[in-house]
Design brief:
Mean pLDDT: 76
Radius of gyration: 23 Å
Order of helices and strands: HHHHHHHHHHHHHHHHHHHEE
Structural class: mainly alpha
Largest sheet: 2 strands, antiparallel
Distance between the termini: 43 Å
Strand order of the largest sheet: 1-2
Shape: globular
Number of domains: 1
Low-confidence stretches: 357-368, 370-406
Length: 406
């Protein structure tokens, strides 16, 4: 017994470095906040169910900008903003990230009335392997067997959680709108990879960065707002101004203007939802800096069974409450295993260095190669390389086996 405890203590001391400890805290807080975030989002959308177009395209990024601007302005007044590092992220970088987020929100919002929620939830998870692939090519990321297994177990756990919804239900899907919804994965993937790249390259302030991204996301939402009219079959260009007026009265004044409106507590749920979302966004950026986009998505999927549990209580989810199933519990266990397996080893950069340092408090410098560097790396005669999508095994100094996607 003493031997086992001693070994466990050694494993804990070896892995719980300050860097990994911070990452563990970020992960725990993210799970806690995103679970609450889901409940608040359900309550808010229930109040604004007749005005989802305005909510997603204008109101959410507008308040996101306001909530990020306040702490950013405070940091500016107290001279705590690192302008030297912040200025290394160009305006074009901010516009790109804001545009990716704006297009992602637009393409994900328009098809909602025409698709089943279960189908959309499953499609969302395609993002995980795509981000891993994009990180491989554009961030020079390399993976081990535990990473591939973690990704597989995550996708498997999510699919299991939705089995009850397919049993005995005739789920219909409009192919055209499904294609539109799937297309939102492209800007979402680009956004994750772009943010991770900049956060690892520079010590940019996450409040300042979020503020600018929200601003450009709001502009993109305003520019493409007319297109989002197609998200509601009852909307036309002629009645859209009145619809927008009703949406603002519902959101800010709690006034019901149309049949089915439930605007009484819309502003309360909206403010609470935004507050939680702000801190969840900050945690996203911190996890991207300390860990990776793939790790963030794997951890985030844990909220699926957690929110299913919370959503089983009518006092929390209201009319959207639904009973918990055995599949939810099974998925929860599977997703925990997936997260542990994936986080067992640090991801590697193109030179074989771990992106997280397990020996000290510093995060190792991340080598994000240029296209020329990658070309030279692949042309090295000393390396036995396969096609870009093949899998091969390499032996390390400690005879451990790692699988790399090259």
């Amino acid at each position: 017994m003493t031997y086992i405890i001693s070994n466990l203590r050694q494993v804990w001391n070896r892995n719980m470095t300050p860097t990994n400890s911070r990452l563990s805290i970020y992960v725990f807080l993210l799970l806690f906040l995103t679970s609450i975030d889901y409940i608040l989002n359900v309550r808010w959308i229930t109040c604004m169910k007749n005005y989802t177009v305005i909510s997603g395209s204008i109101l959410f990024p507008l308040f996101g900008f306001i909530f990020f601007f306040i702490p950013t302005f405070y940091l500016h007044l107290t001279k705590k903003l690192n302008k030297t590092e912040n200025n290394k992220v160009t305006r074009n970088d901010m516009i790109a990230m804001g545009s990716f987020d704006g297009l992602n929100a637009l393409l994900a919002t328009i098809p909602i009335p025409y698709l089943n929620l279960v189908v959309m939830s499953i499609v969302d998870k395609i993002n995980l392997p795509l981000i891993a692939l994009a990180s491989f090519y554009w961030l020079g990321r390399r993976y081990k067997l535990s990473h591939y297994l973690g990704i597989f177990l995550t996708l498997y756990g999510i699919l299991v959680s939705f089995i009850p919804y397919f049993m005995g239900n005739n789920i219909k899907c409009h192919i055209g709108w499904l294609f539109v919804y799937i297309s939102n994965i492209i800007p979402a993937t680009a956004s994750f990879v772009y943010k991770e790249k900049k956060l690892k390259e520079f010590k940019v302030d996450v409040w300042w960065m979020n503020c600018y991204i929200c601003w450009y996301q709001l502009l993109i939402g305003c520019v493409f707002l007319p297109i989002s009219i197609f998200a509601d079959p009852n909307l036309t260009f002629s009645n859209f101004p009145q619809h927008m007026s009703d949406a603002f009265k519902c959101q800010f004044a709690g006034i019901n203007s149309n049949p089915g409106d439930q605007c009484q507590y819309a502003f309360l749920w909206f403010v609470l939802f935004n507050l939680i979302s702000i801190f969840a966004n900050i945690l996203l950026f911190l996890i991207l800096r300390e860990g990776s986009a793939v790790l963030f998505l794997i951890i985030k999927t844990l909220k699926t069974p957690i929110t299913s549990y919370l959503a089983s209580f009518s006092v929390l989810a209201g009319r959207s409450a639904s009973p918990l199933t055995v599949a939810d519990w099974y998925a929860f266990v599977m997703l925990i295993v997936a997260a542990i397996v994936y986080n067992h080893n640090s991801e590697m950069d193109i030179y074989g260095n771990p992106i997280r340092n397990n020996q000290n408090d510093e995060t190792l410098p991340i080598h994000i190669p240029s296209d020329e560097t990658i070309t030279n790396y692949y042309d090295d005669d000393a390396l036995s390389l396969h096609s870009p999508l093949s899998v091969h095994t390499q032996s390390s100094d400690d005879d451990s086996k790692s699988i790399q996607l090259l």
